[in-house]
Prior knowledge:
By secondary structure, chain A is an alpha/beta fold. Chain A folds into 2 domains: 1-77 and 154-234, P-loop containing nucleotide triphosphate hydrolases (Rossmann fold, 3-Layer(aba) Sandwich), CATH 3.40.50.300; 84-152, no CATH class. In chain A, 37% of the residues lie in helices and 27% in strands. In chain A, the strands form 2 sheets. A 6-stranded mixed β-sheet of chain A has the order 6-7-8-3-9-10, with helices on both faces. Chain A has a 4-stranded antiparallel β-sheet with strand order 2-1-4-5, with helices on one face. The relative contact order of chain A is 0.19. By secondary structure, chain B is mainly α. Chain B has one domain (3-244). Chain B is 76% helix and 2% strand. Chain B has helices at residues 3-24, 28-53, 61-78, 83-105, 110-129, 131-136, 162-185, 187-197, 199-204, 209-235, 245-258, 265-279, 286-301, 305-320; strands spanning 150-152, 155-157. In chain B, strands 1-2 form a two-stranded antiparallel ribbon.
Amino acid sequence: xxxxxxxxxxxGQAQVLKQVSITADAxxxxxxxxxxxxxxxTLLKSICGLVERVVGAVIYQGExxxxxxxxxxxxQGLIYIAENRELFPHMTVLENLKLxxxxxxARAHEKRNLEMVFDLFPRLADRRNQLSSTxxxxxxxxxxVARGLMSNAELLCVDExxxxxxxxxxxxxxxxxxxINKQGKTVLLVEQNxxxxxxLADRIYVIEEGRISFExxxxxxxxxxxxxxxxxxx
Amino acid sequence: MSWQRMAAIMxxxxxxxxxxxxxxxxxxxxxxxxxxxxxxxxxxxxxxVIMGFAGIFSFGQVAFFVIGAYTSGxxxxxxxxxxxxxxxxxxxxxxxxxxxxxLPCLKLAGPYVALVTFGVHMTLMPLLRGDIGIAxxxxxxxxxxxxxxxxxxxYAFSSANIIPTFYLTLALAVTCSxxxxxxINSYWGTAFLALKDSEEFAVSLxxxxxxxxxxxxxxxxxxxGVVGAYYGHYIGMLSTRMLELDLFVxxxxxxxxGGIGKFPGAILGAFITVTVNELLAxxxxxxxxxxxxxxxxxxxxxxxxxxxxxxRRSKAGATST
Amino acid sequence: MSEDTLFLIYELIDVIISGLTNxxxxxxxAVGLTLVYGVTKAFNFAYGSFFNxxxxxxxxxxxxxGAVGGYxxxxxxxxxxxxIVGYGLEKSLVAPLRKRPEWxxxxxxMTLGLALFMDNLYAVVFGGRVKSLPPILEGTLDVxxxxxxxxxxxxxxxxxxxxxxxxxxxxxxxxGMAVQAVAQNPEGAKIVGIPxxxxxxxxxxxxxxxxxxxxxxxxQKYFIxxxxxxxxxxxxxxxTAFGGMGSIxxxxxxxxxxxxxxxxxxxxxxxxxxxxxxxxxxLTTLALRPQGLMGRA
Lengths: 234, 321, 297
């Protein structure tokens, strides 16, 4: 479904990604682990056309989408769900969700997706007329994920959804991601070092200092001493 | 650019200008243009210090020039103050006005500064033409018509003695340019580069953005005021015509042509622009149209002015050898 | 009541009406300007020249309009033209600057050059003499001794109508919501797939259409003169800054306050003092509240 080959990304003079290659097959959950500031978010943003200077190839459904503007990428079924949420603060929950379905490919399914989202996040349905800036951290995170789902995307690039959440909420958001995956969506998930995340993963990559330092199945990751020590906290 | 290089370019430009009277000294028309070039070179450089180096979106440069010119004119005509003293007083008064405008607006975001400073410009015309201006001696819509020339030790520097007047103007322009050169390369200059790079970081180093911005505002207003006053005494008359948009835009062309923040590009820009403007004179009423179109095109196509063009070429040359 | 007091009251009512009429058009223009600034962060110095473009286009149409439709056909023709002109200019002149360092400054310089170009082009093409448009509606409405001109009434209601329509578009259409999204969070807007470049151009175009509409409305009360754009531009910007840049509600209040202030200063001290009064008001406001009346800090 998605093949990234030899991706190099730059912010100004600094090179953030070096020769990064990953693949994700349809229906998989691919987890990307790595310490803070080593390029995980940049990888997701590069895939979704949100980084200015990127070299390499991003093949999605057989087409190289690198260099296309984000609105076209979203239209083809990829969506970035930001770690810092990036909501529209002076709009209600409902308005935020409706803007999530801005892409042409999403408009026809807006109604159905809204029902699906309210089904997954009943709390958002209760608060549909509340301003998004007045929501708690956990609810705002839910809204960010929900808004991403409104785009009707096939591939979700989810950036650290558990960041700053208390354990019970983390568990909730991971189980929702699992549910979404069961419905047939492919998920590219970036996390820092959360043990329970490995449960979800079909495939794990580790990024250190902008390079892929490990690649393998969840079993391989769990048996790798170096990874266990550093990322899985075991 | 290193300060040696800036000084070298300045030296070459002013050096060439200094020997020009040997060839064109008896063509009054060209001498007059040269004097005007020198005057605008200083005003454009001052603006460049504010916009290009200090990063302040000030649009009050022509206003300060006119304030300087009128202040000195009023002192000289209504109060019979000797020209040299009047010019100095005008400089100080303009600096004071600069601080007065700077105090409320330098803490504001860029577009607000642009608006307030341009507002000063726009208010000046009704002020000088109205009752308040007339009471102060601005001459209303007629302007001030009989400003005495500068007299030093009994010698009058007027357009009747064009060559000595030219050298006096050159001396003034060189002095002002050297002051600007020193400022850009002093601790102030470094502080401004730091502020432009990252205001937060600079502030954490103990650089007070506001204090430096106010100081640079005062200094450039002073220089602009002095040059404006000098201009008034040289031309002999003033009117609010100077406040119309075309002079303002012409000054801006100088900056864009020279390259913003590429001192001494502004000096080159002034010479090029004044010359081109004179060449466009046959266009008559289309001249301003052309000037306007020129700004649009130059901003889009010449992002770093002639200096940028030149620097890039010399850089390319350096790497290829 | 003595004759003198009665006379004074009538004069005051006249001043208030003038303030309200002008204020409503200023509101229309300020709302357009504050929107562009809020969404695109571009500072358009040619705004006043677009005001005059609206006036001149209307003036050009008058011979045609004598036959068909009156002002209705002027609005139908001129407003879309203004929109297209705005869209094209943003795409060709503003958008290329957006990626440059210090692009805000460069946009200011570029639009100032554009203003000089447009103003002098008007002078060359239409001549320096002022043009006038016929009133949108002749006649007066007499309420007892009070006389209201239909022209003022029409200007007022058309401006308010324009603002309401604009507000409706902003809150009830997909493109309107997208415009607000870009203003509130550009990165978030990009993420959900809003084509920000098209939104920038559309916003610029909407504001151009609004100021053109304002130009048609006010030009039939005063005159169209080629060089008057500068004053209109500064006035619109002062209102926008006074109300708080990017705040539509602030712009609305500011427009009426300034319309009134101008009318009263004009009545008591003379029209030439209105700009000075505006400027003093702006300076005091910014000294006390740097973000303007209702801007977000």
